[in-house]
Amino acid sequence: MNIGQAASASGVTAKMIRYYESIGLIAAAVRTQAGYRVYSSEDIHALRFIKRARNMGFSMDEARELLALWRDKTRASADVKSFALKHVRELEAKIAELQAMAQTIKHLANNCHGDDRPDCPILADIADVTPQRKAANGNGKSKRGTQDHADCSCDDAAPAAPQKH
């Protein structure tokens, strides 16, 4: 089947199929005398596999490694399980980070009057990249989602200075 048919059958765009070939994630397709790519049912299966792995949050390199494990009929399932559980731990850490961010934004929104005044604790917090905060976090990133509410009048921390909300 040609690249358009392969894209339809796999759910992967033709552009991504060409990209996967260019980075060696899948083998370059066999070409006709006219230069058209031809894909086998095995190629389609591999494309579906990659798409599913990517939809599960695996990086391109991780998808490559999973594909290699899938193709290796002598691999131990323990290796695959270990790989998958490592990914679960990474996803859980990312979820925790996203939940902390959501909590921070909720907190800031709750402390915003939402009226016609220009004062906005949300924008003030986002704009606050003080040397103190950089030093406290070691990387210049705010850890607002972890109860660092230094510039608001919430119950979680004493305000560093009175702020207009």
Automatic annotation (TrEMBL):
PROSITE patterns (alphabetical): HTH_MERR_1, HTH_MERR_2
Pfam families (alphabetical): MerR (PF00376), MerR-DNA-bind (PF09278)
Residue ranges, compositional bias (Low complexity): 155-165
Coiled coil location: 81-111
Entry GO MF terms: copper ion binding; DNA binding; DNA-binding transcription factor activity
UniProt-listed GO biological process terms: positive regulation of DNA-templated transcription
Name this protein carries in UniProt: Cu(I)-responsive transcriptional regulator
Species for this entry: Bosea lathyri
